[in-house]
Amino acid sequence: MTLLDHLVIAPVVIPAIIAPLTLMVMRRRRHVGVALSLAGCTAMLVVALALFGIAQDDAIRAYPLGGWPAPFGIVLVLDRLSAMMLVLAAVLALVVMLHAVVTAVDRKGWHFHPLFQFQLLGLNGAFLTGDLFNLFVFFEVLLIASYGLMLHGQGAARLKAGVAYVVVNIVGSALFLIALGLLYGLTGTLNMADLGQRIAALGAADQGLIRLAGLLLLAVFALKAAVVPLHLWLPRTYAATAPVVAALFAIMTKVGVYAMIRVVPLIFGDAAGAAAWVPAPWLLPAAVLTAIIGFVGVLAARAMREQAAFAILGSTGTLLLAVSCWTQATTAAALYYLVHATLAGAALFLVADVTLRRRGQYGDAIVPSPRFAGQQATGLLFLAATIAAVGLPPLSGFVAKLFILQTSVTAAPWPLIWATVLGTTLIGVVGFARSGSTLFWKAADDADPIAGADRSRAELIAPATLLVLLALLTLGAGWATAQAQATAAQIYAPDRYAAAVLTEATR
User: DSSP states of 164-225 as a string?
Assistant: First the structure.
């Protein structure tokens, strides 16, 4: 292997090295720890962009750890999908980290930076792994880090929400292990490429258990993605944690959706016999309910963080509407929307953070308040972020929803998908218009401005950066949709994936 081939493992190695280094230096030389953390996020972005460029040749690359060939050893796999997710995670991480440093949120605890890096380790590993057991391991790494990040800054509300979050994810981990045990007992492997081939060769007597294992995996991924009825943990958790942490968590639900997109066509595709497309009957109704409940929550929310949490829930439902059709065209639309929804959700939380820091005792509650410093600039950021979140022109959410509507028209349930997308968009517009007018228009002009809430303009940079990225995603919609279509073509060619992993990993 060349040095370029070893670049595949860099997104896992970089945070694994930076995390303990920051832990060792933070107490005595905080500035060094912060510099290391920022350097690590920057290095991850550079590596992710390099891997994205490498993946443009449409080849699928397997990286066997320790030289052990698949399916016997651990293998990392770089393809268009994993490269796209690595870039998305790296961009979001760097922007969120800069905001945390600028606003001094990272100073509310000694372990913010190590936990942040371990979170990235789990995310990057989950995107690269080609083995279901190691997907479970990386899930646990990112979940353990997220427990600590969620409690960062302390508070009774965070502790209460954190306990519920931990309990729910422990149950999910147990279900994941049961599903893995069933799959390993039936096939003798947990390598995803190998599983796809062995499930296709199973006899009729094993089909019931394979279907059960597939449904358990779907339940686990649905729990990670906060799909109805497994969604109750998300609004409370995301609304209770620090907004800057919740902005990073915007990609957490997308990890569950990523796992569905990765696993179902590869393992439970057309060749899986009676277990083929086992999640299909269940995913569409759950997606419809998730989108509706999410955007109704936006309408009923009483605080900006709560509203942003429900917006993420609604966007997950919209994303799964496209995924649930299980066609190459709708999956391409889902991938474009996935990038958009992650950046838009993070932008909402960062705008909420700016607002609550400037409104003093009023915080992010959706109630009228006296004027506060930077109200006009913050209001404009809120307007842009909400336009993105609901999918109105001119930002990329409008393009993404048109893409979903266009590609789903050939699917049997297209009337339901169209009605859900259009109806929830209207609900979202009403909900955000209500909160925006209350927060930034109905302010009491005759009251004294809020004192002691002057903040640096630097804290506006991070949310503005995410909104600029969304604008670029709109301007580059042609290129981005072509990338999404090429990625979907790879996803729906499981034989190519299997050949690359099971043969290239032995070289």
Answer: HHHHHHHHHHHHHHHHHHHHHHHHS--BHHHHHHHHHT--GGGHHHHHHHHHHHHHHHHHHH
Cis peptide preceding 265, ω within 30 of 0 = no
Distance CA 294, CA 298 (A): 6
Task: Give tens-digit pLDDT for 322-354.
Answer: 999 999 999 999 999 999 999 999 999 999 999
Q: Where are the beta strands (DSSP E) in 247-298?
A: none
What CA–CA distance (Å, rounded) separates 310 from 316? 10
**What DSSP state is assigned to residue 406?**
H
338 in helix, strand or coil?
Answer: helix
Please state, in angstroms and rounded to a whole number, the distance separating the CA atoms of residues 151 and 80.
34
Mean pLDDT of 239-268: 93
User: What is d(CA 275, CA 217) in angstroms, rounded to the nearest whole number?
Assistant: 13
Strand partners, 62: 77
pTM of the model: 0.94
Q: Are 401 and 344 in contact (CB under 8 A)?
A: no
Q: Using CA of residue 460, residue 465, residue 470, residue 475, what is the dihedral sign?
A: positive
Angstrom distance (rounded) from CA 11 to CA 82? 11
Torsion-angle region of residue 202: left (phi > 0), alpha (psi -120 to 50) or beta? beta
